[in-house]
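Quick question: what would this complex look like in 3D?
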Amino acid sequence: MTQTQEQPVSTGDTPFVPIEKIVSLCKRRGFVYPNSEIYGGVSGIYDFGPLGVELRNNIRRFWWWSMVQTNDNVVGIEGNIITHPRVWEASGHVENFVDRLVDCKNCKRRFRVDHLPEENLRQNKCPVCGGELTEPRKFNLMMETYIGVVEGERMKTYLRGEACQNIYLDYDNVLKSSRVAIPFGICQIGKAFRNEVTPGNFLFRQREFEQWDLQFFVHPSEMQQWFDYWKERRFEWYKSIINHKDRLRFRPHGADELAHYAKQAFDVEYQTILGWQEWEGIHWRQDWDLSRHSEYSGQDLSYTDPETKERYMPWIVETSGGVDRTFLNLLIDAYEEEPPSGKDKEGRTVLHLNPMLAPIKVAVLPLQKNKEELVATAKELHSKLRRVMVSQYDDVANIGRRYRRQDEIGTPFCVTIDFTTLEDQTVTVRERDSMSQIRLHMNEVPAYLLERVRWDYKV
Ligand code: ATP
């Protein structure tokens, strides 16, 4: 739960991107909008626009493909947001899912105790104005809701505070209905809700967000080996989708942060202008979750080994991250303002997004929009391409401006139809990062692009 309060130091040649630039790009180009903006908005809640929804879907699909569809011992589920309220008693959320907060008596700012620099905590001093802080108070983060319509008969429950509980709830059904045996994992992507008292930093800390979890069930004697395995796999996964590999690290949890059942835990952290921040947690959950749900539900969730007939409560390795932090970190990681150069005299803003995750894979551009044959040929290629990837047709403004528009949203390829195309059916394919251009026959374009935008992860 803690963040490291180090001053960020920019590594390499690229400076850290101010978050405001990402917020502005997101709004301007249709990635992210403040929710209910016409009513003044709600802090910590956002909507995703036309490009944002494409990027989100790609991020989700890539995780699902690399975690579920390419692992024979992992299956997926989609559990509901609303569950029986007892779930949250068993999980400990009703009692313990709290943030401890202090207020500054002078400037009235509010801080999470676990986010305060140690110095300020010790001196009971506000990190902004130096004023005196109040005693810590506890706030429960669970969002309440009610099932039923008749007053008095309505059942109070919660919007799930973390998505992974569904996996424990469905564990027994998965075991009985699928051909899985320990060791195996269950994955899920889904919304979670937290009444965060200090939402902020754009998508980093929201009140409604989306998590992805793997819960991997093992024999206790194999816990360490599977923990190490998934820890490394998840780190490599994140490394494979970013440009600034040196901004990724593990942070081991200190003894004071570990849950009583956890031998160890690690956060995968990414460094931005905000410092090192958690991206995903790798947790040693032992038999805590299944034991608690066995106790609270009265259903025995222990496992019998089909061969040895040994009966035991499975232990769990958890990897828990989020779509939204991935979305934000990828934009921060990809954003660059390139100064004017020999290749581009005006300079440009470019998103160096991994091509497989980019919202638009290719833009098809007729050199001029008032030449019927150019337009017809471009539209024909566009309609061929959009059957296999997200393609955008654009004929507004000069070609340089159109390239820059696509660079700014991370489109990895632009295909230009010009007068030579009409003679020999070749087109110009321009690559976003290098801005290099090659000529290809039109018929070769779909296969050429598909090879460069397909899912790519060593499995
Ligand atoms: P933090 O210390 O930042 O509050 P946490 O330790 O409570 O995070 P977990 O409960 O382990 O986080 O959640 C797993 C993942 O879900 C996090 O690594 C993060 O990617 C994502 N996540 C958690 N809270 C939020 C939030 N409020 N907004 C967006 N994503 C979140």
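Answer marked as accepted. DSSP finds 13 helices and 23 strands in the chain.
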